[in-house]
Design brief:
The protein has one helix at about 115-130, and strands spanning about 15-20, 25-30, 35-40, 60-70, 75-80. The protein has about 130 residues and is of the alpha+beta class. It has a single domain, classed as Beta Barrel (OB fold (Dihydrolipoamide Acetyltransferase, E2P)), CATH 2.40.50. It has a 5-stranded mixed beta barrel with strand order 1-2-3-5-4. Strand 4 (about 60-70) and strand 5 form a beta hairpin. It is elongated and about 65 Å long. This is Polyribonucleotide nucleotidyltransferase. Keywords: Transferase. InterPro entries: NA-bd_OB-fold, Ribos_protein_bS1-like, S1_domain.
Length: about 130
């Protein structure tokens, strides 16, 4: 799956089957065998004390894609975005968005740790400049 282009986009509504349930959420296999997760907070509006009350293994579900991590290939799914809210916010015309801002790029950026030896001279000069001020 690494290196393959993912054909999903944030906001898409897709169908799948629940293949596993954990206390934190439910795993869903989509039609092309891609795996996604419905976090417990995305199961329904309001508090969910026990996810097993709402979802069952092998249950077919229709979900909205709310986030895609391009690097780890993880897809976040939501049932809550597709259900009608019983919140009083709906009555006053406030629209609740079920999308997360997601910033990504199509290439890996070279970031991370550099050896201390490579940075030491610059740190010494910077420190001396601060002392001279």
């Amino acid at each position: 799956m690494w290196g393959e282009k993912m054909n999903y986009r944030i906001g898409m509504i897709v169908e799948g089957k629940i293949t596993g349930i954990q206390p934190y959420g439910a795993f869903v296999t989509l039609k092309d065998h891609t795996q996604g997760l419905i976090h417990i907070s995305e199961c329904k509006h309001g508090f969910v004390d026990d996810i097993h009350k709402y979802l069952k293994v092998n249950q077919e579900v229709k979900v909205r894609i709310i986030d895609i991590d391009e690097y780890t290939q993880k897809i976040s799914l939501s049932l809550r975005c597709l259900e009608k809210s019983t919140s009083s916010l709906d009555n006053i015309g406030t629209k609740v968005r079920c999308e997360h801002k997601h910033y990504w790029t199509s290439r890996h950026v070279e970031t991370g740790f550099a050896p201390i030896a490579e940075r030491l001279d610059g740190w010494i000069e910077e420190s001396l400049a601060n002392i001279r001020k």
